[in-house]
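call fold target=Signal peptidase I
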Amino acid sequence: MTMPIIATMVPTGSLHFMMVSGTSMEPTITASDIVVVNAVDSGGPELGDIISYRHYLEDRDEPVVIIHRIVGFSNDGYRTKGDAYDVADSYVVKPEDIVGVMCLKIPYLGGLPRFASTSKGLIMLVIIPAVIVITSEIYSIFDCRGTLK
């Protein structure tokens, strides 16, 4: 079963860097990619564009950001679909819910923050370097012989 691509967004002006989770856009976008989304210009997105948009899921009070491809238009907005799905989404994306259009994908870079958020990643990327720095500072304070400089 595929999961919808849900993005964690870091806004930087008109560009948004998004770390994604889910498999609905595979193979185009995977959970190890970082996606760069540019704010929509006055012309709006076009058929085939990959867009990010806010959507309320049934089990959440706050909207999530989803990344899917535009496969059609309706009077109310855009029809979208994940590349891994055979059918379009059951809802219409309203223009005001669109965050932006994907302009760049950075492969594999999303794996690093995902790894850093695990306990093993925290130990390897934060705790071990911190212990090395602290130990080095203690040695430099005591001049490695137990005497203060």
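return ok
The helical segments are 111-116, 119-142. The chain has a mean pLDDT of 85.
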